[in-house]
Each structure stands twice: as C-alpha cells, then as structure tokens.
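Lecture notes, unit on protein representations.

Consider one protein chain, 558 amino acids long.
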Amino acid sequence: MTMISLAAIAVTLLIALLLARPAGLYIAQVFNYERTGLDRWFGWLEKPIYALGGIRKEDQSWKQYAMALLLSNSVMILLVYLIFRFQGMLPLNPGGIASMEPTLAFNTAISFMTNTNLQHYSGESGLSYLSQMVGIIFMMFTAPASALAGAIAFIRALSGKPLGNFFVDMIRCITRILLPVSFVLAVVFVAMGVPQTLEPAAVARTMEGAVQEIARGPVASFLSIKEFGNNGGGFFGVNSAHPFENPSGFSNFLQIVLMLLLPASLPFTYGKMVGNKKQGRVLFVSMLMMFVVLLGVSLTSENTGNPVINALGIQHAQGSMEGKEVRFGAAESALYSVVTTATETGSVNTMHDSLTPIGGLVAMGNMMLNTVFGGVGAGFINVLMYAMIAVFLSGLMVGRTPEFLGKKIEGKEMKLIAVTLIISPLLILLPTALALYAHPDTISNQGFHGLSQALYEFTSSAANNGSGFEGLGDATPFWNISTGIVMFIGRYFPVITMLAAAGSLAAKKSVPETAGTFRTDNILFGAVFIGAVLIVGALTFFPAVALGPIAEYLTLKP
C-alpha cells in the first residue's frame, strides 16, 4: 500500500466527514418542519401528493406510526412483485427479458423494499427497463425514506415530542433530501460516462469478427439513489466493478462519499433534535473510532494478503488482488468493502468472496454489529438501542435507575430492547444451520469458507445490507424464500419494537438531572457505548465467526 493510496483514502474520508455535520443539521431542519431553501422548489410538489393520498398532517401514536410504515411498505412490496411477475408482457423491455418466477420475484420485491437489495439474479439480464425504473428505483426512494422516517419518529419520542406523521415524514424525506441530491448526482454521473438511455443493448463487432451485445440502460438515475439512499444492488451483475456503473477513480470516490453521508450525518441530526448536540458528537466520534479500527484491519489484511510458500520453500506474503478490479487496487477495494458494510449499503466494487479471511470477517462484523454508522434510519435506531444498553449497564454498576434524556429506562423498555437484540442472531444463525444441513449442495466451497458463505448471506439479509460472498447457488426456492423472510423480519421487527420502547419513554415524565445522573455526553459514555457494542454485539456471534473466517485464517498460517 503506497502513501498515495493512504492519502487518497484519508482525503475521501475527510471530505465525507466534513459534509456530515451540515447535512445532519439540514435533515433536522427538514423534520423539525423549519423553512429550508428547497421549500419553493419542492413545496408545490407535496400539496397534490397529500391531497391525492388523503394525508392529514396529524400526529400519530407509536402504534399508528408503526402500522402505517408496515402496511404501506407491504402494499408497495405487493405492487412491485406484480410488476416483476408480468414484466415479460409489459412495455419498456427491449431485451425481451422474461417474467420472474414466483420465489425470485418474492425475494427481489422484499429485498429492495427493505433497503437490502440482495440480488439472486444478474442485474442486466434479470429485469426489464420498466422493472428497473418503476419497480427498483421507486423502492430505492421509498425504502430509505421509510427507514429515515422511523428513525426520526424514534428521536422525537426520546426528546418528549409527538412522533409526527409517517406519510408526511416519508414524503418530506423524498422531496427535500433524496430527490434533489439524486437528481443532481445522476447528471454528474452521466457527465462521467455512466449511461442513461432507454435504447436496447448496443451491438458491436469484435476484432475477431464475433458479435457482442453491450448492456446499457437508465444506469445513472439508478446509481445516484443506489449510493445516496444506502440501497446497494447493481444495475449490472458485477455491481460497481462494472465500468459503466463505476467508470473512474473519481466516480469511485464519489460513491464512497455518498454511502457515508447520510449515516454519518444522523448523529448531528439527533443532537440537534433532542437539544443535546454534545451527545450527538459523542455518538459520532464513537462510531468513527470503531470504523477507523476496522478499516485499518481490513487494509492491512488485503494489502498483506495470504501467506504463500514459493518454489524455494520460503514463506512470504503477497497483496490480494483476486476478485478485485485492477483500476482500484487492493486499498480502494478494502475501503469500499468496509464502507459498504458499515453503512449497510451493499454496493460492491470487488467480490467479497475473494476477500482475505480477515477482510471478510471485517465486512461480516460490520453487518453483525450494525452500529458502525449503520444504514440510513434503521441503523441509527440500532445505535440508539446500544446507547440505552450502555446507560442501563452503567446504572446497574452504581445501583441507580438508569436515565436517558431525562427518562427512566425500566423493565418494559429493557424487555423490548432484549427482544430486539435476540432477533438478529436468531435470523442469522438458525437459517445458516438449516442451509448447511439441508442444502450443502448449493454452497460452492466446503469447509470453513463454505460456512462463511452461508453465514454471510443470512447476515447480509438480516442486516439489510445485500452484499454477498457469492459462490452460492442462491437462485433457488430455498434461498429465495428463506432470505426473503429474514429480510422482512430483520427490517420491520426492530423498527416496531424500538418505536414501542420510544413510545413508552415518551409517555413518562422527565426527571431532573442531579449530581448522580450518568452523563451521556462525555468521553466516559463513549467508552461505555463502544464496550456495550463489543461485549453484547460482537460476542453473540463469536462462536459462528470462529468456525468460519477465523478458522479459515488459522488454516492459512504455516
């Protein structure tokens, strides 16, 4: 790894992090219903949407908010499922792509509505242009908007304010945040050479005289919201390793910044909305510290590579370029893999199945923890859950009822948090065991790496990330249905339970801060927060990863 590579990584992260604070404060403005510079451009668009949808700007209880989120998302899943099932008979299908079979359509509709974007099909050959635009891109806006709306309702409840209205929050998120940024960025990507066309695949004749079809389509509009909305997925089968989807080093830099922007900005949104900016900064710095450590581990592993015995019997190490795009190299590939899993995006510019065992462990660990920035909305709810766990553990140690933002955390809230904690390992470990027992034939690698492949697939599904180790024969009814169920439960169950916990806290009276109150806006709290993530989160999955990537790493040692 050269100094130029390190400097490029440092500049990329610095720019993303410098943008986080102003972006976070702007998001707080949007959801505090304050006037913004975009009101005159998009305010007119909202009024007919509210009128057509019969939406009234009335505050909802946590139950009404959660039900509105769940039912609206479920209806959208059904509508897009029907588009996938009948795409072969619908227009805007110049490639004559056939309709999806039922279990694959089921998996794909749930995948993109849950912000997962797991793909059991090859992008350019699996969906028509209509399905890409009306189905996929539509959900790429509504999915992150739904998640961010849920996170904002959670923050409002913690601060003692009404939760707001889900439909209003979702629409404002689309019109004031996602749509304007994505529109501008789509134009930028077109200028970089990313295709944006409804023309069929280009036909070219090679030097040998063979005919080659070059896939293209409305890629730029797909790419901008894919990265900014932490969606992931790929218009093409090889995702952002494809030169049409990631044509240059600058486009690669821009994609990394976009993936980080919303998740890194939410701590500042939180601090502004709850009236404790210092606590927001503490959460931001804590997540940044975990991110930097994990990035360092991945960079070291991918640039060192696996040990090799040469012809003279001498052991040496070599950088790992297997499965990586040579335009980006090992360093930028490792950075991309850490960012895409830390932000729960799932876009890839390298094949994660080819990462070194430790590099793969870092990617998997990011998703298991789901707190190293985390995805837009749902990931930040997870961060606040661990913050409350940290406060609760601190209260137990000093024999005092824990308080968070002036509200006592008692048995009801901790039961809801405990149930939320349990659901993730259940969704990951049980289906992995079932897959290894009942369908080992679909796993291309046996032994430790084969276990990692199955474990990664369900971890990615439960964490709504969508990247994969690949190497799996996952386009089968078993994988389509099992991961579809895991994605649905992994998305909506934690949001609903944590909204219930926030609703319970919101109903309580605030208690005045005293000398004995555990402060949540200092270095000590940051340390306890990181400790809670590592002890409660990491140790839950340690036995599984010990049998997968850790065991694989140990077998490579001489």
